[in-house]
Amino acid sequence: xxxxxxxxxxxxxxxxxxxxxxxxxxxxxxxxxxxxxxxxxxxxxxxxxxxxxxxxxxxxxxxxxxxxxxxxxxxxxxxxxxxxxxxxxxxxxxxxxxxxxxxxxxxxxxxxxxxxxxxxxxxxxxxxxxxxxxxxxxxxxxxxxxxxxxxxxxxxxxxxxxxxxxxxxxxxxxxxxxxxxxxxxxxxxxxxxxxxxxxxxxxxxxxxxxxxxxxxxxxxxxxxxxxxxxxxxxxxxxxxxxxxxxxxxxxxxxxxxxxxxxxxxxxxxxxxxxxxxxxxxxxxxxxxxxxxxxxxxxxxxxxxxxxxxxxxxxxxxxxxxxxxxxxxxxxxxxxxxxxxxxxxxxxxx
Length: 349
Prior knowledge:
By secondary structure, the chain is of the alpha/beta class. It contains 14 helices and twelve strands.
C-alpha cells in the first residue's frame, strides 16, 4: 500500500507569520486594499512568493465584491468566430489586456434564442464583474439583457440601435470606418478609375453602414448597380463580386469592406480573366497581415488597429469598474474612443 501524502495549502496566517505582520495586513495586500506601507507590502509579497500562497477566490470576492472575471460576448455563431481572423485578433487584444490586469476572460457566444437565455442567466448570476460586447447586429437582444442585469458594459463597435447615439452613458471603441472608406475610394479615384463598385458588409451592422456612407461621400452619384451587400466572409465576397461583374462588366475599381471578402473577390476576378490592378483595382478594409499580405497580388487595404481595439475596450471597462469600487475617488468618467485608420498601399491598387 503506497503512502498517501497530503499537501496543505499555505494560509493567510502562515503568510502573516512569515512576513511578520498581522493577518489583516496580509488580507489587505492580497485583496488589493489600500492603506499599507510599501515596505510592508514588499514583505507580504515576498512571503506569498516563498510560500506559494494562492488567494481563495471565494473569500476574495466577499472582500472586494469582485470576481476578477469579465464576460466577452460575440453576437456571432461559433463557426464564424473561430474561422474569421478578425475575431482572433480582437480576442487576442482583449485576452492580453485582461491577463495584464490579472482578470479572467469568459467567452460567451450566441447563435439562437436558447443561447441568449443562457447568457442572460449567467450574467444575472453574478459570475462576472462586467461585459464586453462586439459584432452586434440590429435588434440584437444583448444590449437589453445587459441593461436589465445592470452589469457594466463596453461595446466593441459603435452601437446601432435607435437612440444609442444620444446616450452618453454608453461606452464603445470603434475605428473611423467612414473616414477609412473615404480614403479607400479617394485612392481609387486618384488612380483614374471611373466605374468604382463596393462590396459592403451586412447592412444590419454599424461598421457596414459607416463604410458604405464613406463610399457615397466620395461617389455621391454612384450607380446603385455598383453596390452589392456581402457578409464579411470569403464566400460572401466571391458571390458579391460575381454579381457585380454580371451587373457592370466594365467596372474598373472595387472597394471591399473587409479583407476576407476581398480574398473572395480577387479569386472571382482571376477566374473571370480580369487582371488586378491593370483591369480592376481592389482595396480592402482591415489590414490583417495573415490575409492582406498573402493575397495575389498583395492587397491594398485600410488598416484598423484590431488588437488595440480589443485592449481599449478592456481598459474602458476596468476604469468603469474602478470608479464603482467602494472607497474609490470618483474621477473623470471614461469616454468612448474612435481610432483613426490609414491606407496601406500594396500591389492590388
